[in-house]
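[step 3/7] fold_predict: job queued, chain A
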Amino acid sequence: MRHALSVLVENRPGVLTRVSGLFARRAFNIKSLAVGETENPAISRMTLVVEGDEAPLEQITKQLNKLVNVLKIVELESELSVQRKLMLIKVAASDANRTNVLQVVDLYRLHVVDMVPDAVIIEATGSDAKIEALLVALAPYGVKEIVQSGTVGLQRGAKSLSERVTQELQLKK
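[step 4/7] structure written:
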């Protein structure tokens, strides 16, 4: 089962190592990892996507909560959150098939970020399902290379998780 975790941490050196090490010690493979500062430069958000059963994941979540630099952990349920990843895809594009490749780009509302005589590099942003469907559509033309970011996600609605954590930190001072 796929789980996306949003983990707010103190923006300090070594935090990523401690968090990822905890998953490694429990033999959980991290399928996707994205880390970056939030609107508060003292707090970073890690979005981790893992596959596994509920019970071991619950145990890891409890252990994550015990780490000093971890401020808040929320599981991003797919229907209650927005999740996206970014992918750059290099596709063979000869004179014979360039028009067809560009039609796929238009159909999926993507962007061509580089074009040379024998290839195009496409920027794709979307859900896992959209990205998978795109790769199937581009496969006949020859996908030469792929690079992708980790999944990022936010809960739907007006509530801000990082804003609440910032307020809690200020109250502790």
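[step 5/7] annotate
The CA atoms of residues 104 and 137 lie 7 Å apart.
The beta strands are 2-10, 30-37, 43-51, 70-75, 81-92, 111-116, 119-126, 143-148, 152-155.
exit 0
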